Amino acid sequence: DAHGERLELLPEARPTIEKLASQGIHLSIASRNDRQPAEQALTLFDLLRFFSFPQIHWGGKDLSIQTILTLFSERADIRLQPSEVLFIDDWESNVQAAAALGIRTLQMGKAIHRLQEIFRHL
User: Fold this and answer.
1) What is the DSSP letter of 110?
2) 7-33 burial: b if 16+ Cβ within 10 Å, else e
3) Which residues pair with 27 in a beta bridge?
4) How high is the pLDDT of residue 4?
5) CA atoms within 13 Å, Cβ hemisphere of 70
Protein backbone atom coordinates (compact mmCIF):
# COMPACT_ATOMS: atom_id res chain seq x y z
CA ASP A 1 0.00 0.00 0.00
CA ALA A 2 1.01 3.65 0.16
CA HIS A 3 2.78 2.99 3.47
CA GLY A 4 4.79 0.01 2.25
CA GLU A 5 2.51 -2.55 3.91
CA ARG A 6 1.63 -5.75 2.09
CA LEU A 7 -2.05 -6.03 1.23
CA GLU A 8 -3.63 -9.45 1.20
CA LEU A 9 -7.12 -10.43 0.20
CA LEU A 10 -9.02 -12.67 2.58
CA PRO A 11 -9.10 -16.12 0.95
CA GLU A 12 -12.90 -16.24 0.96
CA ALA A 13 -13.36 -12.69 -0.41
CA ARG A 14 -13.08 -13.41 -4.15
CA PRO A 15 -15.29 -16.53 -4.24
CA THR A 16 -17.90 -14.81 -2.06
CA ILE A 17 -18.00 -11.70 -4.25
CA GLU A 18 -18.08 -13.77 -7.44
CA LYS A 19 -20.92 -15.95 -6.12
CA LEU A 20 -22.97 -12.94 -5.03
CA ALA A 21 -22.49 -11.31 -8.43
CA SER A 22 -23.32 -14.54 -10.30
CA GLN A 23 -26.60 -14.70 -8.38
CA GLY A 24 -27.55 -11.26 -9.70
CA ILE A 25 -27.01 -9.49 -6.41
CA HIS A 26 -26.04 -5.85 -6.87
CA LEU A 27 -22.87 -4.97 -4.98
CA SER A 28 -21.44 -1.64 -3.97
CA ILE A 29 -18.94 -0.21 -1.52
CA ALA A 30 -19.29 2.43 1.18
CA SER A 31 -15.76 2.92 2.47
CA ARG A 32 -14.06 5.55 4.58
CA ASN A 33 -10.75 5.76 2.76
CA ASP A 34 -8.80 7.80 0.27
CA ARG A 35 -10.44 7.00 -3.05
CA GLN A 36 -7.41 6.59 -5.31
CA PRO A 37 -5.41 4.03 -3.29
CA ALA A 38 -8.56 2.07 -2.38
CA GLU A 39 -9.67 1.85 -6.01
CA GLN A 40 -6.12 0.97 -7.04
CA ALA A 41 -6.06 -1.94 -4.56
CA LEU A 42 -9.48 -3.16 -5.73
CA THR A 43 -8.30 -2.95 -9.33
CA LEU A 44 -5.09 -4.85 -8.57
CA PHE A 45 -7.17 -7.59 -6.93
CA ASP A 46 -9.52 -7.46 -9.96
CA LEU A 47 -12.51 -6.73 -7.74
CA LEU A 48 -13.52 -3.17 -8.61
CA ARG A 49 -15.50 -4.43 -11.62
CA PHE A 50 -17.98 -6.19 -9.32
CA PHE A 51 -19.08 -3.00 -7.53
CA SER A 52 -21.54 -0.45 -8.87
CA PHE A 53 -21.32 3.17 -7.77
CA PRO A 54 -18.66 2.72 -5.07
CA GLN A 55 -18.54 5.52 -2.53
CA ILE A 56 -15.01 5.81 -1.22
CA HIS A 57 -14.42 8.97 0.79
CA TRP A 58 -14.19 10.16 4.38
CA GLY A 59 -17.88 11.04 4.74
CA GLY A 60 -20.42 9.15 6.80
CA LYS A 61 -21.62 5.70 5.80
CA ASP A 62 -25.24 6.88 5.91
CA LEU A 63 -24.48 9.51 3.24
CA SER A 64 -22.61 6.92 1.15
CA ILE A 65 -25.50 4.46 1.34
CA GLN A 66 -28.05 7.10 0.40
CA THR A 67 -25.87 8.14 -2.55
CA ILE A 68 -25.52 4.53 -3.71
CA LEU A 69 -29.29 4.00 -3.58
CA THR A 70 -29.86 7.24 -5.53
CA LEU A 71 -27.30 6.28 -8.18
CA PHE A 72 -28.80 2.81 -8.61
CA SER A 73 -32.16 4.48 -9.18
CA GLU A 74 -30.97 7.29 -11.47
CA ARG A 75 -28.29 5.53 -13.51
CA ALA A 76 -29.36 1.89 -13.52
CA ASP A 77 -33.14 2.31 -13.10
CA ILE A 78 -32.99 -0.02 -10.09
CA ARG A 79 -35.08 1.26 -7.23
CA LEU A 80 -33.95 -0.45 -4.06
CA GLN A 81 -35.87 -0.05 -0.84
CA PRO A 82 -33.74 0.15 2.31
CA SER A 83 -35.25 -3.17 3.47
CA GLU A 84 -33.83 -4.80 0.31
CA VAL A 85 -30.27 -3.77 1.17
CA LEU A 86 -27.84 -5.71 3.34
CA PHE A 87 -24.97 -3.64 4.77
CA ILE A 88 -21.92 -5.36 6.24
CA ASP A 89 -19.26 -3.54 8.23
CA ASP A 90 -16.89 -4.23 11.09
CA TRP A 91 -17.54 -0.97 12.95
CA GLU A 92 -20.59 -0.85 15.20
CA SER A 93 -21.18 2.88 14.61
CA ASN A 94 -21.35 2.28 10.84
CA VAL A 95 -23.78 -0.59 11.32
CA GLN A 96 -25.95 1.62 13.54
CA ALA A 97 -25.93 4.43 10.96
CA ALA A 98 -27.11 2.01 8.25
CA ALA A 99 -29.75 0.48 10.53
CA ALA A 100 -31.12 3.96 11.24
CA LEU A 101 -31.91 4.18 7.50
CA GLY A 102 -34.00 1.00 7.71
CA ILE A 103 -31.28 -1.15 6.17
CA ARG A 104 -30.61 -4.71 7.28
CA THR A 105 -27.12 -4.95 8.75
CA LEU A 106 -24.51 -7.47 9.77
CA GLN A 107 -21.52 -6.60 11.89
CA MET A 108 -18.42 -8.53 10.91
CA GLY A 109 -16.88 -10.14 13.99
CA LYS A 110 -20.19 -10.06 15.83
CA ALA A 111 -23.16 -11.22 13.71
CA ILE A 112 -20.89 -13.04 11.27
CA HIS A 113 -17.26 -14.12 11.46
CA ARG A 114 -16.61 -15.31 7.91
CA LEU A 115 -17.75 -13.82 4.63
CA GLN A 116 -19.49 -17.04 3.53
CA GLU A 117 -21.94 -16.55 6.38
CA ILE A 118 -23.53 -13.75 4.34
CA PHE A 119 -25.47 -16.32 2.33
CA ARG A 120 -27.51 -17.34 5.39
CA HIS A 121 -28.83 -13.77 5.57
CA LEU A 122 -29.93 -13.27 1.99
Assistant:
1) T
2) eeeeeeeeebbeebeeeeebebbbbbe
3) 51
4) 77
5) 7
